[in-house]
Amino acid sequence: MKTLYDVQQLLKKFGIYVYVGKRKWDIEVMALELDHLHDAGLVSKDEFIQAKLVLKHEHAIEENK
User: Fold this and answer.
1) Taking a C-beta distance cutoff of 8 angstroms, is the pair 34, 7 a contact?
2) Is the distance from CB of 25 to CB of 3 less than 8 angstroms?
3) pLDDT of residue 7
4) Residue 21 phi/psi, 5° resolution?
5) Are 17 and 63 in contact (CB under 8 A)?
6) Mean pLDDT by 10 residues, the chain (65 residues)
7) Contact (Cβ atoms closer than 8 angstroms) between residue 57 and residue 47
8) Is 5 in contact with 43 (CB distance < 8 Å)?
9) How many beta carbons lie within 10 A of that of residue 13, not counting itself?
10) CB atoms within 10 A of CB 17
């Protein structure tokens, strides 16, 4: 998992579509949804960590704009 699109596809497998309107907010909501999936044991630890790293990176890019 290397891109935000990959994270979106992971969430899509669980019927989770995120669109708030601003990319930064979308990333934050995706992180929350990912946390919920991990807490429920629906995604592996490896998938969770990779997705969180991607989201953290993308969020940092948005913060610097």
Assistant:
1) yes
2) no
3) 97
4) 130, -35
5) no
6) 96 97 97 98 97 98 94
7) no
8) no
9) 10
10) 9
